[in-house]
Amino acid sequence: MKRLFFVLNFILITTLVYANEGEHGVNLVKDFTWRFITFIVFAFILIKLLKNPVKNLLVNRTDEIKKAIEEAERAKAEAEKELNNYKSKLSSMEKELEEMKKRAMDAVEKEKELILEDAEKNIEKLKKFAENLIESEVVKAKEELKALTVDLAIKLAEERLNSTLDKETKEKIAEKYIKMLEVQN
Fold first, then answer.
1. Residue 160: HSE in the Cβ half-sphere, 13 Å Cα cutoff
2. How far does Cα 32 stand from its chain's mean position?
3. Residues 6+ apart with CB under 8 A from 33
4. Which end of the chain is more exposed for a tag (fewer CB within 10 A), N or C?
5. How many CA atoms lie within 13 A of 144 on its CB side?
6. Distances (CA, A) of 165 to 65, 152, 159, 178, 183
7. Residues 154, 173: contact at Cβ < 8 Å?
8. How far is Cα 115 from Cα 127, in angstroms, rounded to an integer?
9. Helix and strand counts by DSSP (H, E) for the chain
10. Highest mean pLDDT among 14-23, 32-41, 105-114
11. 166: left (phi > 0), else alpha (psi -120 to 50), else beta?
12. Where are the domains of the chain?
């Protein structure tokens, strides 16, 4: 409003200055006045015709800018929310990863202990098996030695008996010796 008042004052002062210059100034003033009136009428018509469309255009543009700003703020808030969500997920995933590492290490330790225990049990079983095998071989060897000794003793006894004793006495002694050996076994 102040600008319009300033422009009108400027035009009025300019007109008065030219009016003081005489006849040439009067024609100039008339010409300028008609031009000014035409401009005012044209400006008035333009304002009347374009006021609402320009106003609507500016209001619509303002609304679009506000909506864009609101949408940008909403998007920013959503992005911040997502960022915080991802940060929390990342921190929980790091904790979970540490827990998984710990559980894996515990499982490895337990498996190692089980393997060592199983190996010790197997070693113990193998020792017992070897001891039993050795004992059974020793027993078998003793029995073979006994059998061999008995056979040798019988052969020796037979040879001695054959060389010194008669047949009847030999048979009695052999039977006695056999009975004695059977009792020992």
1. 8
2. 84
3. 15
4. N
5. 6
6. 143, 19, 10, 17, 25
7. no
8. 18
9. 3, 0
10. 105-114
11. beta
12. 2-136
Residue listed under structure tokens 């997920």: 89
Per-residue model confidence as pLDDT tens digits over 36-93: 788 888 888 878 888 888 888 889 999 999 999 999 999 999 999 999 998 888 888 8
Write the pLDDT tens digit of every residue in 107-160: 999 999 999 999 899 999 999 998 999 999 899 988 888 888 888 888 887 777
> How many Å apart are CA 96 and CA 77, to the nearest integer?
28
Highest mean pLDDT among 5-9, 24-28, 69-73: 69-73
Query: What predicted TM-score, i.e. pTM, was given to this entire model?
Result: 0.35
What distance in Å separates the CA atoms of residue 80 and residue 73, rounded to the nearest whole number? Answer: 10
Q: Which two tokens stand for residue 36?
A: 């000014």
Beta strands in the chain (DSSP E): none
> For the residues of 80-115, what is the DSSP string, one character each?
HHHHHHHHHHHHHHHHHHHHHHHHHHHHHHHHHHHH
